[in-house]
Design goal:
- There is one protein chain.
- This protein has 106 residues and is α+β, with helices and mostly antiparallel strands.
- It has a single domain, classed as Homing Intron 3 (I-Ppo) Encoded Endonuclease, Chain A.
- 42% of the residues lie in helices and 20% in strands.
- It contains three helices and five strands; from the N terminus they run E-E-E-H-E-E-H-H.
- The protein has helices spanning 29-38, 68-79, 83-105, and strands at residues 9-12, 18-22, 25-28, 47-50, 63-66.
- It has a three-stranded antiparallel β-sheet with strand order 1-2-3.
- Helix 2 packs antiparallel against helix 3 (83-105).
């Protein structure tokens, strides 16, 4: 993987996310990782959702690229305590993400 820019500082923000700072730029580590793997264009107008809800668990298998609408729906299911709907939506979105990634690779 090619480093996009020089990371000079790593820190936690007030929300519990790990951030990278450098070259007059700050980004969350989860976004940095997804951009390195999938490319910056794949994340345009997208959010990164931590499937297990642990904000500093930036393992790629725990990160899901979603639209704002999808992200809001995921958190609605969690607020409502509807874990079955949450897990079903996560599974559908993971399959969708795999298809998009396969399409971009080919």
């Amino acid at each position: 993987m090619k480093e996009m820019w020089k990371i000079k500082r790593v820190f936690y923000d007030n929300s519990g996310y790990v951030n990278y700072a450098g070259n007059n730029h700050i980004t969350r580590r989860c976004r940095y990782i997804c951009e390195m793997v999938y490319g910056k264009s794949a994340l345009r107008n997208k959010y990164i959702h931590h499937i297990n809800l642990i904000r500093d668990d930036d393992d790629l298998s725990n990160l899901l690229i979603v639209t704002m609408k999808e992200h809001m729906r995921l958190h609605k299911y969690l607020r409502d305590g509807d874990i079955d709907k949450y897990e079903a939506l996560v599974n559908r979105l993971q399959e969708k993400q795999k298809k998009i990634i396969c399409k971009e690779v080919n």
